[in-house]
Amino acid sequence: MSIQPVSKELDSNGPFLQNVVMQFIDLQRQQEQISDSVRRNIAEVLEHGKYINGPEVPLLEKEMEGLLQGEVHAIACGNGTDAIQVACMALGLQPGDEVITTPLSFMATVEVPVLLHLKVVFIEVDPETGNLDPAGLEAAITPRTKLILPVSLYGRCANYTKIVDIAAQHGIPVLEDGAESFGAKHRGRLSCTMTDLATTSFFPAKPLGCYGDGGMVFVRKTAIAGPSDTGALAAGIRRICRHGQRARYRHTEIGVNSRLDTLQAAILLAKLEVLETEHRKKQEIARHYCDALRGKIGLMETQNDDESAHGYFPILVEHRDAMLRALETAQIPYSLHFPCLHTQTAISGKDIDLGYREGDFPIAERIAREVITIPMHAYLTEAETEQVISCILQNS
Ligand SMILES: Cc1ncc(COP(=O)(O)O)c(C=O)c1O
């Protein structure tokens, strides 16, 4: 039986094109590598039948803590959006508290503070990375600032050295939205270990993705500016994910229902087998793209010993439409990550208006106008990479 996606726009392989010559992110080729482990792990879940909170979930949490060098407590949850929400809830943020974040991200980053009635304060992004620019941070901090929420956009860490330093001077915790960056490094340190709290998403197309929705919250064991009892904070997050239950049917706070399905944990355990190899392969492909395209179009190359997880590979093209048409003609999939948040109707319309308008963040707006994300995954062949490069070069 062949099942078509309900909407082309919701297809994780990218928009618009019917007969692509390669995949934007190739989950099929990845599955072929790990098929035996995936099937074995799924069969074990079917065997024990513990579909909710089965043993694979804590096992995955343990594995993830190990991957993050024992520096964090890991709490699995339903998706990367919930991960931000339960972290904010566990911090005890109150309506009106200010959260400083970036206008260049996926909607989830801003949706959570808005849902929790927090005040969203956007600041401009760094032109080199598209990430929250620490240069604007100090001026945006007020006595009501209770959280700084940078995003590691496209898989590349923000400058956490500077962000955490400034935040710590003001006693404000930082939460890294690491939905796109699991495996990335900033100055040799791993994404999701540098801030008091971090979150990631296991959406299928993410650097570590499952076969449905999933997410995780990480609490740094050594607090920087967050609550000093990090074990209690992690336990609070775990409770909130389970309807605020301290024990079965004893609800001591308002929570949500946000769990990682056992089957998804089982799939993720299989995917961990190829995570490092995929990460290395993506570094090679990125180097190849950069060497071939440097000077011809805009690139957001990593500096020093930073490593992107290459959740996406962005290029910047001033006259973007012509390049999009060329990619479409060549049947090369692409996407546009992301339009700016501050101009989204949901938060600048008649029901909710955060007060931001087009023109407020010229750097973020220019990136949003010029960005094209091109195919990037560990299973791109050399011929496919060359096809992408030659299409871009012919049209730049
Ligand atoms: C930067 C960012 N934050 C949060 C999310 C939300 O993750 P999820 O789709 O798992 O809820 C995403 C997912 O696309 C994302 O890219």
TrEMBL record:
Keyword set, alphabetical order: Aminotransferase, Pyridoxal phosphate, Transferase
Class of the enzyme per the UniProt entry, highest EC level: transferase
InterPro entries referenced in this protein's UniProt entry, alphabetically: DegT/StrS_aminotransferase (IPR000653), PyrdxlP-dep_Trfase (IPR015424), PyrdxlP-dep_Trfase_major (IPR015421), PyrdxlP-dep_Trfase_small (IPR015422)
Similarity remark: Belongs to the DegT/DnrJ/EryC1 family.
Keyword match Transmembrane helix: no
Protein name: DegT/DnrJ/EryC1/StrS family aminotransferase
EC number of this enzyme: 2.6.1.-
Taxonomic lineage from the root: Bacteria, Pseudomonadati, Spirochaetota, Spirochaetia, Spirochaetales
GO molecular function, one term: transaminase activity
